[in-house]
Amino acid sequence: MTRCDIPTPAVILAGGLARRMGGGDKPMREIGGRSLLQRVIDRLAPQCDGLILNANGDAARFDGFGLPVIADSVADFPGPLAGILAALDWTATNRPDVQWMLSAAGDCPFLPRDLVKQLHQARCKEGAQLAVAASAGQSHPVIGLWDVRLRDELRHALVAEDIRKVGRFTGRYPLATVEWPAAPLDPFFNTNTMEDIAEAERLALIDDRA
C-alpha cells in the first residue's frame, strides 16, 4: 500500500433542510427506483474504508441503510462544515488509525468511481493538506479529502469565527483540485429542486448504462 493508497472512510452529508423542495430528507427521494442516498452509498462503498452518515433529527429514519448516523455538534444548522466537523471528531475517536476522510453530499447520485483514488493522487503529487473535486470549471468543496488533524482548526473557524462556507475554510490550506469531465454527465450533479430531480431521472438512464 502506497502513501497515496490508504484507508479512507467517508461521511455522506445528509443534514440539509431541503428548503427548495419543501423540506424533508432530500437524499431519500428516488430516481430510477433507488434513493439518492442509496446511489451515493453504492458509489462510495467500493472506494471507502467504511461509511458514516451525517444527519440531524431522528436517526431511526435511516436504519434501513445500516450506517452509523452522527448529528452536527454545532447548533443551528450551520451547514456542511458542521457535518464535516462531526465526522472528523467521530473518525478521530472511532478510527484512530485513519488520517484521511472523504466528505460527499448525499444528493450527488453520480459520483465518480475513482473519486478517492484521484483525490489522493493529486494530494500526494502537490503536497496538499486538502483535496477537492471540480467539474466544468467549478469547484465542489463539499466533495473532498480532509486531514483529520485539522478538526480543531475547523471547530475554531465554525464556533469562534462563524465561518460557514466550505471554500472559505479550505482556502486557508494548500489545496489540490481534481477536474472531472462533465460529459456525458456531470458526476457532481446535485439535486436542489424538483426540476433537478426530473433531470436526474434522465441522467440516471445514462449512468446506469455506463
Task: Explain what the structure shows.
The chain is an alpha/beta fold. The protein has one domain: Spore Coat Polysaccharide Biosynthesis Protein SpsA, Chain A (Alpha-Beta Complex). Helix content is 31%, strand content 20%. The protein contains six helices and nine strands; from the N terminus they run βββαββαβαββααβα.
Topology at a glance:
Elements: E1 10-13, E2 30-31, E3 34-35, H1 36-44, E4 51-54, E5 69-70, H2 80-94, E6 100-105, H3 115-126, E7 130-135, E8 138-147, H4 151-159, H5 166-170, E9 175-180, H6 194-209
Parallel strand pairs: 1-4, 1-6, 4-5, 7-9
Antiparallel strand pairs: 2-3, 6-8, 7-8
What tags apply to this protein structure?
globular, Spore Coat Polysaccharide Biosynthesis Protein SpsA, Chain A, 20% strand, alpha/beta, 6 helices, seven-stranded mixed sheet, 210 residues
